Amino acid sequence: MILPIVAYGSPVLKKKAIDITADYEGLSALITNMFETMYNAHGVGLAAPQIGLSIRLFIVDAAPFSDDEELSEEEQRQLKSLKKVFINPVIIEETGEEWAFSEGCLSIPDVREDVFRKEKIKIRYYDENFNEITEEYDGLGARVIQHEYDHIEGILFTDKLSSLKKRLIKSKLTNISKGKVGADYKMKFPLLKKKR
């Protein structure tokens, strides 16, 4: 089932999400719905807060990035196979040089900005079967995970921009929260006036 994605300005996007347990009701269906919602919106990641649930769960499928011809064959292979569910994740460390990449977000359509992130991460999480896993990622794969991880920490990529950049996109962000945006997927807007 395709769920509406909550837009910029929704309080749930600014809240630190809570851990869940293996017996979380409807977890399997929720994960299936999240993948369906993400694919419908042509995303590479989706966090539970983006569908209105303040829980520590996100999914990624970085395969669309694997088509980039500037990447090595090894990087393309890694991205193609990076389809995962992350439950109660903890980034243990972020290392390497910070590098910029133009990021977007399904909750903030039509806005893309350069965001600086560390190149490598080590993360501990549970998969959809509640097996505990610790892995390391680098490059674009690490970036997709860091972006989604920020969502469960109540952080948006726009929070990482300079104050000048924030001022430049302020009216765009206000319009998104009011529903004045042309997303080609279902969204829920916090400031959309209800018709009487």
What's the quick description here?
This is Peptide deformylase. 26% of the residues lie in helices and 31% in strands.
Report on the structure:
The chain is an alpha+beta fold and 196 residues long. Helices cover 26% and strands 31% of the residues. It contains four helices and seven strands, in the order βαββαβββααβ. β4 and β5 (108-126) form a beta hairpin. The chain starts with a strand and ends in an 8-residue tail after the last strand. Pfam families: Pep_deformylase. Keywords: Hydrolase, Iron, Metal-binding, Protein biosynthesis. It is an enzyme of class 3 (hydrolase).
List the helices and strands and how they pair.
Blueprint: E1 5-6, H1 27-40, E2 45-47, E3 57-61, H2 73-80, E4 83-105, E5 108-126, E6 132-138, H3 139-152, H4 163-177, E7 187-188
Parallel strand pairs: 1-7
Antiparallel strand pairs: 2-3, 3-4, 4-5, 5-6
